[in-house]
Amino acid sequence: MGLPALEFSDCYLDSPQFRERLKSHEAELDKTNKFIKELIKDGKALVQALKSKFPADGRETSLQVAAPSSRELQDTRRARIIQKPTAPEAKKKYDKETEKYCGVLEKHLSLSAKKKEAHLHEADNQVDNVRQHFYEVSLEYVFKVQEVQERKMFDFVEPLLAFLQGLFTYYHHGYELAKDFNHFKTDLTISIQNTRNRFESTRSEVESLMRKMKENPHEHKSISQHLMEGYLFVLEKRSFVSTWVKYYCTYHREPKRVTMVLFDPKSGGKMGEEESFILKSCTRRKTDSIEKRFCFDVEAMDRPGVITMQALSEEDRRLWMEAMDGREPVVAQLDVIGFNVIKKFIYAVETRGIDEQGLYRIAGVNSKVQKLLSLTMDPKTCADVELDSPEWEIKTITSAIKHYLRVLPAPLMTYQYQRSFIKAAKMDNPETRVTEIHTLVHRLPEKNRQMLELLVNHLANVASHHHQNLMTIANLGVVFGPTLLRPQEETVAAIMDIKFQNIVVEILIEHHERIFQHVPNSADGPNNMLSNQSRRRSTESKAPSCSERPLTLFHTPTHSQKGMNTAVSVNVSTSATSPSPASPRSPSWPMFSAPSSPHPVSSASSDSSPVSVSGRKAIALYACKAEHESELSFIAGTVFMNVHASREPGWLEGTLDGRKGLIPENYVEFL
């Protein structure tokens, strides 16, 4: 009758298409039952009419002749009775198990991940048992439907054929009709016999396959290399309330297309409208970021936002993520690992492909970029990554740099100063524009400024090869502007300011030496020269044990200091090449430059011999955070009492608020 075959493997997927095929088989059986019922009714009427037409003396003979036909008619009725109970009873059991399984599954998926492990393990086992029972009932029901569908071809037609044969024999006037029917009867008899033989030969094999699938369901699940399908719960916001909606999802790997159909077997199998989108990325969702288990996030190329999905189990989530080339979440921070990774990437770009055309403009393959970042950000695998390998193309490395900057918790130039940089870029005077940006850069947190300097120096090097790579300063501004100065919220004003973000990056690249190698001039007092000279970065010295960047001197000089400023300035400039004292307690800074450390100031001499400082007052030029109990924490402008030399080289001892402690010698000036 042209009905599609019911595959046992579809019982495990339980897809909407499988339910539709099952419905079509059930409808066909109901149609056959009605037809048999009407045919039996017509046959009984025919036999009754034959009995009433013959005279009384010939009724016995007619009844004797008609008796075989009545028996064959009863056989036809039995054929209908055989298949009739299958529909209501087996279907009722199947629907009941479907509703029970779906209810248990939804209740199980609603369990909080914060439950005890034993409770979750017990719940998982319970769901597995219910799922296994549902699969067995589904297999048995499909087997029964297939059996009845095949059996009716001979259990019904064969008695009907016998009835017609008896009827045609009974009719003396229907001899010619019976003769014409003879060839059809012969063909039909052969066809029935072949169908019976085929059924008997395949029934045992089908039953054996069903038993194997019951025993080892996982081995017989159909897993395609090009297709992944199954049920997923999708987090949706409806009427300001977040709810989980059940979809039957299909993912085709070749075009990366995800298709979702709203379908719930409990609601009678009503299908909703089909939705589809092109997959952009897939990321596992951390358990501590969402209350539900088995979740992952997907991004689409043709629709905004992130779609959160929940799989049916951990194994199911693993299969979905493998099909979608999913990745683990990458955590980017301005820490030791982050600086190491970026330095490693920049070195690879500058040594391997700085002349490559379209550098930073041509994007790499997303899956390769995620893989590279995952390997390099993982302390266990970072040492094994060889960027010289042909596996890592230059476009993959440059895309990894951009992606790292994009996934930072805050943009490199911070949300705090984002508007200030934009305002500076809008200034009319070019010199004022550069000066303002210069000042803002030195207000950034130390790690942000160091990473920005590392990146901008690299981009300046890239721009110097623009004749080969075609990446001018303007092109680099277009690429990095929205990344380094991304707004906290996407507004119309933010979109209009994109061009000014690009201008800021262009200024940073074009004036990188001035911006990063010189501290901006301060107009707060005569200590300007001292402050600028003291904060100049030294590549030959290590910092004292202060983890913060020295702040600009803000105290107002006294009359006794005014006469010292000239001598102090000269002394600072002449001693700029001498290394500053190193502390045995000072931390190492292996991943990025240490904070600037000012050089000792002395009006007595410019050599490196210690100065007698017993019992004098001193004022802090910079802020410092203590890293040991023996040290003092202070801010710029703090006055220390009873300052004298310490046994520790490069350190002084002083008193602050009645507490004695160590002070970095090159962070103070004596009064």
From TrEMBL:
Pfam families referenced in this protein's UniProt entry, alphabetically: BAR_3, PH, RhoGAP, SH3_9
UniProt domain PH: residue ranges: 225-329
GO biological process: signal transduction
Compositionally biased residues, Polar residues: 524-533, 555-564
Compositional bias per record (Low complexity), positions renumbered to this chain: 566-611
Keywords, sorted A to Z: GTPase activation, SH3 domain
Molecular function per GO: GTPase activator activity
Keyword Manganese: no
Stretches the record annotates as Disordered: 519-611
Domain SH3: 613-671
Full protein name: Rho GTPase activating protein 26
